[in-house]
Design brief:
elongated, 28% strand, six-stranded mixed β-sheet, alpha+beta, four-stranded antiparallel β-sheet
Amino acid sequence: MTTAVLAHRADLPRQKARSASAAASPAGGVGGRSIAEIVTMHCEGVLAPMGVIVEFLDAQVGTWQYSLDDGESWRTIRTDLINRPGHMGLALERAARLRVLPFGGGARSGARIVFHAAQRAPGEGNGSYRAYAPDDRGDAAHSITLVLGLGAINGMPPAVAASRPRNKRALAAQRCAA
């Protein structure tokens, strides 16, 4: 079995982890990314037209969740099922969204994800835990390991435009106007 390691560390340094309560609102930048976005952005040349089977998620960084309805509702991923020895994975279609709610006070800013392309569409089994064959996979279905920053998984928070006074006079004028 071949494992490709792709590490994108552009957003890893100096990124602070947010608490789970601060991360709970989608407007806070944790609307997650679809499986298709993650594969397209971080796995050039990898085709996963049927979806993926998630083999491992870094449980030390926070609580992992997935959504099958474009972020309307989220389900917690049982990392205890997929991270143990054996061959159990979480089947997700390309449209499913993935996110991680970081543990409060954590200094970890990146997480490891291991998955492989699904051999057939999950269909009714989208979002289900299923056994997968470790060696009986086609060339396109080898395990892929990504090390991504939380922003690459959750999406970046929207930019907030705020005017800022440039000098003492402007600051005084702003105080008088308020």
